[in-house]
Design goal:
Strand order of the largest sheet: 3-4-5-8-9-10-11-12
CATH superfamily: NADP-dependent oxidoreductase domain
EC number: 1.1.1.-
Structural class: alpha/beta
Organism: Streptomyces celluloflavus
Low-confidence stretches: none
Keywords: Oxidoreductase
Shape: globular
Pfam family, one: Aldo_ket_red
CATH architecture: Alpha-Beta Barrel
Largest sheet: 8 strands, parallel
GO molecular function, one term: oxidoreductase activity
Number of strands: 12
Length: about 325
């Protein structure tokens, strides 16, 4: 597995392709803990060291899953472990409710994650979303205290504005900003945000790099989504939008065939070609997809191939927002 540096001064080395672990516990249909552990085992065998979770994934269940696997397999020294805080669940509905990035909540959330993960230190700790009512300087100041205490090694933010990123980095170095980035979602990163990251030496961790599976060709229709699959309620997968988006995907498939790789590998290879400071974290809960995704680290696209893939998915042609309305309101602060 090839590696990349995460962040500027004092940066960490991580696998060029990471593993998003959310779907092992929530969002994409029923969880299968045994298959999840097999997937983690295989990813580790393939050299995937960068594992991503959050306290919001299954209300801590995903952190507990990773913590149990780390303990049982003795893999802690082999893993660069990232988790997040800030999305609190409503007690009545069980759904994500308020965003809490208050300085008082930061150490409470971190200690809870450390217990669930069964580790003494988190390698990369993100604010999952930002409460605009809390100055980012206060949040990052409290996160910096965790670094000083030895509970966290590196700090990150997720889905913030360039201005927020600058203000945060002035308080304590930010190693990574996690953003949705794929052939389907480019406007979030490309432009001012990427320029800001490169000026400050901050890496972009690209989540949903396969467009939540659509760029890999799954699902093939809205009807294939079960009630337990969150995508059934997301705009790009609606019955009105999915066929328009799959038309774009079919062109990606044709280009991938010309390259000699799978569509998922083409999409990941395209992201890797955007710069050494981009680290995709495709999520999966199945061994075969972990193998397919990890192999993309060896794919070196030519400029012409990357250009064909970009042209195959014009930004204006993608139908539907990337999140439902309520979730959209939490982004970009």
């Amino acid at each position: 597995m090839r590696t990349r540096r995460l962040g500027g001064a004092g940066s960490a080395e991580v696998s060029a392709i990471g593993l998003g672990c959310m779907g092992m516990s929530v969002a994409y249909g029923p969880a299968d803990a045994d298959e999840a552990r097999r997937t983690l085992d295989r990813a580790a065998e393939l050299g995937v060291t960068f594992l991503d979770t959050a306290d919001a994934y299954g209300r801590g269940a995903n952190e507990e899953l990773l913590g149990g696997w780390l303990r049982d397999r003795g893999r802690r020294a082999d893993v660069f472990l990232a988790t997040k805080f800030g999305l609190r669940h409503d007690a009545a509905s069980g759904r994500v409710g308020e965003v809490d990035t208050s300085p008082e909540y930061v150490p409470v959330a971190c200690d809870a994650s450390l217990r669930r993960l069964g580790v003494e230190r988190i390698d990369l700790y993100y604010a999952h979303r930002r409460d605009p009512g809390t100055p980012i300087e206060d949040t990052v100041g409290a996160m910096a205290d965790l670094v000083a205490a030895g509970k966290v090694a590196h700090l990150g933010l997720s889905e913030v504005s360039p201005a927020t990123l600058r203000a945060a980095h002035a308080v304590h170095p930010i190693s990574a900003v996690q953003l949705e980035y794929s052939l389907f979602t480019r406007e979030v990163v490309e432009g001012e945000m990427l320029a800001t990251c490169r000026e400050l030496g901050i890496s972009v961790v690209a989540y949903s790099p396969l467009g939540r599976g659509m760029l890999a060709g799954a699902p093939a229709s809205w009807e294939q989504l079960t009630e337990a699959d969150n995508r059934r309620r997301w705009p790009r997968f609606s019955s009105d939008n999915i066929e328009r988006n799959l038309t774009l995907v079919r062109e990606v498939h044709r280009i991938a065939a010309d390259i000699g790789c799978t569509p998922a590998q083409a999409a990941l290879g395209w992201l890797l070609a955007q710069g050494d400071d981009i680290v995709p974290i495709p999520g999966t809960k199945r061994v075969r997809y972990a193998e397919e995704n990890a192999a993309a680290a060896e794919l070196a696209l030519t400029a012409a191939q990357a250009g064909r893939l970009r042209a195959a998915v014009p930004g204006a042609a993608v139908a539907g927002e990337r999140y439902p309305e309520q979730a959209l309101r939490r982004l970009g602060h």
